[in-house]
Each structure stands twice: as C-alpha cells, then as structure tokens.
Amino acid sequence: SLYRAFIESMASENASRLTAMQKAEENIEERLDNLNSQFNRQRQNAITEELLDIIAGFEALAKV
C-alpha cells in the first residue's frame, strides 16, 4: 500500500541519517584523539625545553 511504502521510505531515510551521524561521530572521536596526541607532544616539548633551560642555568652557575 501507499502508506507502507511511505513508512518504509521514512525508515530508510532515518537509517541513512543514523549511519551518517554515526560515521560523523567516529570522525570526531578520531580527530579528538589526534588533537589530544598533538597537544600532549607539544606540552612535553615545552616541559623538556624548560628542563634544558634549568639544567643549562645550573651548569652555568656551577662554573662560576
């Protein structure tokens, strides 16, 4: 019947939307993981630079 075809069409459309939204969610999670990794690398680099500055300062003072 026409009603059944309409309902099946709506169900199919909603299933397609759900699939698209699930894929978008996966992409967002992947992007977030990448950004968190990048942030952690940059934070660790900043910490390493600060430690190297402290060590260089200590070595300079030790020579005096």
Task: Write a concise synopsis of the structure shown.
Helices cover 97% and strands 0% of the residues. With 64 residues, it is mainly alpha-helical. It has one domain (1-64).
Shape: rod-shaped
How can the largest sheet be summarized?
A: none
Would you tell me the structural class of the helices and strands?
Answer: mainly alpha
Radius of gyration: 28 Å
* Overall strand count: 0
| Low-confidence runs of at least 5 consecutive residues | none
Task: Give the strand content.
Answer: under 5%
Q: What's the number of domains? A: 1
| Total of DSSP H or I helical runs spanning 4+ residues | 1
Helix content: over 70%
Instruction: Encode the helix/strand succession as letters.
Output: H
Give the oligomeric state: single chain
What's the N-to-C terminus distance? 95 Å
* Overall pLDDT: 97
